[in-house]
Amino acid sequence: MSSPTSTPTAFRTAIVPAAGLGTRFLPTTKAVPKELLPVVDTPGIELVATEAAEAGAQRLIIVTSPDKRAVTEYFQPQPELEQTLKDRGKAALLEKVRRGPALIAAETALQERALGLGHAVGCAEPNLTDADDAVAVLLPDDLVLPHGVLTRMAEVRARYGGSVLCAFDVPREQISAYGVFDVTDTDDDDVKRVRGMVEKPAPDEAPSTLAAAGRYLLDRAVFDALKRIEPGAGGELQLTDAVALLISEGHPVHVVVHRGGRHDLGNPGGFLKAAVDFALEDPEYGPELRNWLVERISRS
Ligand code: UTP
């Protein structure tokens, strides 16, 4: 484990919990994992795998359930399909098909039942090696833009030790939709020390306007804490309860306040915004979509 004075602590391993039921996307998620729904043409899970790889992760542990194996299959090479595309001279498509498997070494950890995010992260522990003194956790339904916050979080861990989370500053009137950090200042405006967290507070009771985002750089101590917390509502083990236990035991926890954009892919409304946002930037689909949106909105 690192001390605050040790050399910068990178991470080699990123965990992506993808074993949830995806009820907000029913009925589609009866058959298709929400992590594979395409933002334009690329599944959300490839977007977060790209972010993890860019931050230096070498392994991606995808926590998935027995009936969602398609999520990890997505990262397997498809030699027959590749050959067909090659034979047909479809170079751009071949590049897209190869992109996911080439990004990062993906492997599976199984969560037999959806017993909460904390439980899902705990299911990845057997996949870790002795070298993993910290792990990154990326929620695949949360796009944090532009990429780079994980690198900043690693710098903060190198300075303060412990665990580092990611926050967005949101308008106070919207704060009750989020988990909110109770923080104290550091000498860096964008880094705060965490005292605690409050789930979905009323605006006038929120301890800050810093809302939790789905990026975590967790000291390995979190796996021990996950074994010592009690399940909450619905028998679920919450990751934030394990972090709260660590804080109560004096473990340093900081947040990096990310001044960028974000898309919530976890519900159809947020997913549509992300798809439109990405499509408007797409050279193939953007111009026509823009014209159509302008015309469509003028009619409404
Ligand atoms: P969410 O609560 O957003 O996803 O969990 P969900 O439970 O699949 O969706 P709804 O609420 O039913 O619509 C955040 C992430 O944690 C994973 C989910 O797959 C999602 O990527 N997760 C959640 C697990 O892997 N296991 C769990 O037990 C719960």
UniProtKB/TrEMBL annotation:
InterPro entries tied to this protein: GalU_uridylyltTrfase_bac/arc (IPR005771), NTP_transferase_dom (IPR005835), Nucleotide-diphossugar_trans (IPR029044)
GO BP: UDP-alpha-D-glucose metabolic process
Domain of life of the source: Bacteria
Secretion signal span: none
UniProt KW keywords: Nucleotidyltransferase, Transferase
Listed Gene3D superfamilies: Spore Coat Polysaccharide Biosynthesis Protein SpsA, Chain A
Catalyses which reaction(s): alpha-D-glucose 1-phosphate + UTP + H(+) = UDP-alpha-D-glucose + diphosphate
Domain Nucleotidyl transferase: residue ranges: 14-277
Stated family: Belongs to the UDPGP type 2 family.
Record-given protein name: UTP--glucose-1-phosphate uridylyltransferase
